[in-house]
Design goal:
Order of helices and strands: EEEEHEEH
Number of helices: 2
Helix content: 10-25%
Largest sheet: 6 strands, mixed
Radius of gyration: 12 Å
Distance between the termini: 13 Å
Shape: globular
Number of strands: 6
Low-confidence stretches: none
Oligomer: single chain
């Protein structure tokens, strides 16, 4: 498993999400996953909503173009981002 990969123009991310952090940021690699810290608490799907909103801004795509494929209720998630317009430098280095 790789943390970040491109498949047919779409970005596939394997994430380890840290909720209730002091700020939203891409932390770096955490084993074979990309660690992302977000400020939202892991309650009633707020962390997932906040994560999608954060990533939509980072990759310049609509929120509807981001799909959580695995891990809706856990810290380990797999996301697909359809045709990202921008790839942040921290993630570009992992491709």
């Amino acid at each position: 498993m790789v943390a970040v990969s491109m498949q047919q123009g779409n970005l596939l991310l394997n994430l380890y999400v840290q909720p209730k952090a002091s700020r939203d940021q891409v932390v770096g690699l955490h084993g074979e996953e990309l660690k992302i810290a977000i400020t939202a608490p892991p309650v009633d799907g707020k962390a997932n909503t906040h994560l999608v909103k954060y990533l939509s801004k980072a990759f310049k795509v609509p929120k509807g173009d981001i799909t959580i494929l695995k891990g809706l209720t856990g810290r380990h998630k797999q996301l697909q981002i359809l045709s990202p317009k921008l790839i942040p430098p921290a993630i570009q280095n992992l491709l």
